[in-house]
Amino acid sequence: MNSFIYHASQGYHENYRQLIWMLAKMDFKLRYQNSILGYVWAILKPLFMFCVLNFVFSSIFNKRYIVDDHYTLGLLVGLMLFNFFSESSNSGMRSLLNKSSLVLKIFIPRWTIIMASTVHSALIFLFNIFVIIAFLVWYRFLPSFTAVLIFMMFSMLIYLLVLSLSLITAPLFVKFRDVAMIWDVALSVLFYASPVFYPLQMLPEWIQRILLLNPVAFIVHFTKESMFNNHYAEFWQFVVFIASNAIFFLFSVWAYKKLIRNVAENL
Question: Cβ(237)–Cβ(157) under 8 Å?
Fold first, then answer.
């Protein structure tokens, strides 16, 4: 009996994985279906933003205060990480409304739709990782093995953070469209409050401590520091950061169960 229950649960999990992957691939294909350049836009959009910021801060502003030896590479890495967070959180927030036909006509767990949207954004981030690798090769810079592991760990933590946010914002957005406006403003604040295009060290220490409370700033800062300066967060900082993300994920699951109950009525 226990064996039957185990295999049945394994089958359900496998079906969910297939469903999530199918929805994610469908999102990815539909996003670039009618564009001339197609999937290339997955790379070009953040790359254009990178070129603008790199020109402004490398050529216009005083290098003594803004630019270090690896400023261009650090800007690229920081921008790709933040773009992953921004794109994924927006996609997850709008997932239920964008797939309202599935929610209303087919009985599938709503969380699979939310998760598929975030997986779709993760696929785009994988394309951007190849851009980072290409720039590292071009500049003949090889980060340490530890730094690469930290980059991978922080990328997964960004995904966990995005999934947690999406589980809360997706059902809220169905009922309150104002959530999108609020989140757009919040993303703008988070972008300037994260050391994407500036080094955190240029700010007073008390401001640094405040900004590092922002999980995106923490990830961007210590990813850049580990890759280009061989400077790592202290062990207790890692533990507190990972634990707080895990707690927030558990809270998001609880909030999702409360918010999802009447979502079909609000579509």
Answer: no
